[in-house]
């Protein structure tokens, strides 16, 4: 069993920045991929970014060049630095982890954190 606790959401103006954190605990050695999904009202949950145990990253086209995922293995934590935020980034962001090599299959979810980008 793996538990994911995320934090860092909030309200920012367009062009602003936020950093999300996701701390994993439990059977963390079973995790091979982590990242974030997001879900806006009335929309399907979508994959934003992922990182594998080997360090490979993948970003949705909508966030490339603006978002950066990183990790601190000693702290069992991954981070999502979000810059140049746009109103369309407004969503609940869910940390996710997978036993598989790819985050297309999600085995564990964080509780979600609200990100609101508004002027």
The end-to-end span amounts to 40 Å
Q: What oligomeric state best describes the polypeptide chains here? A: single chain
Helical residue percent band: under 10%
Mean of pLDDT: 96
Q: Report the C-alpha radius of gyration, rounded.
A: 13 Å
Number of helices: 0
Largest sheet: 7 strands, mixed
Q: Characterize the overall form.
A: globular
Q: Give the total of beta strands.
A: 11
**Beta-sheet strand percentage?**
over 45%
Q: H/E order of the elements?
A: EEEEEEEEEEE
Low-confidence stretches: none
Q: Which structural class matches the secondary elements?
A: mainly beta
Q: Overview of this structure, please?
A:
With 119 residues, this protein is an all-beta fold. Helix content is 0%, strand content 52%. The chain is built from no helices and eleven strands. Strands 2, 4, 5, 6, 9, 10 and 11 form a seven-stranded mixed beta sheet that branches. The chain has a four-stranded antiparallel beta sheet with strand order 1-3-8-7, with no helix packed on it. It is globular, with a radius of gyration of 13 Å. The chain starts with a strand and ends with a strand.
Fold topology:
Blueprint: E1 2-7, E2 10-12, E3 18-26, E4 33-39, E5 46-52, E6 57-59, E7 67-72, E8 77-82, E9 91-98, E10 108-109, E11 113-117
Parallel strand pairs: 2-11
Antiparallel strand pairs: 1-3, 3-8, 4-5, 4-9, 5-6, 7-8, 9-10, 9-11
């Amino acid at each position: 069993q793996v538990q994911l606790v995320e934090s860092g959401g909030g309200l920012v103006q367009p062009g602003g920045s936020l950093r999300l954190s996701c701390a994993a605990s439990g059977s963390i050695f079973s995790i091979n991929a982590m990242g974030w999904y997001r879900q806006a009202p009335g929309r399907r949950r979508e994959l934003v970014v992922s990182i594998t145990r080997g360090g490979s990253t993948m970003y949705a086209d909508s966030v490339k060049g603006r978002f950066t995922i990183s990790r601190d293995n000693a702290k069992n934590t991954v981070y999502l630095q979000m810059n140049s935020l746009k109103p369309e980034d407004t969503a609940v962001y869910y940390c996710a982890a997978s036993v598989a090599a790819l985050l297309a299959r999600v085995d564990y979810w964080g509780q979600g954190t609200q990100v609101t980008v508004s002027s």
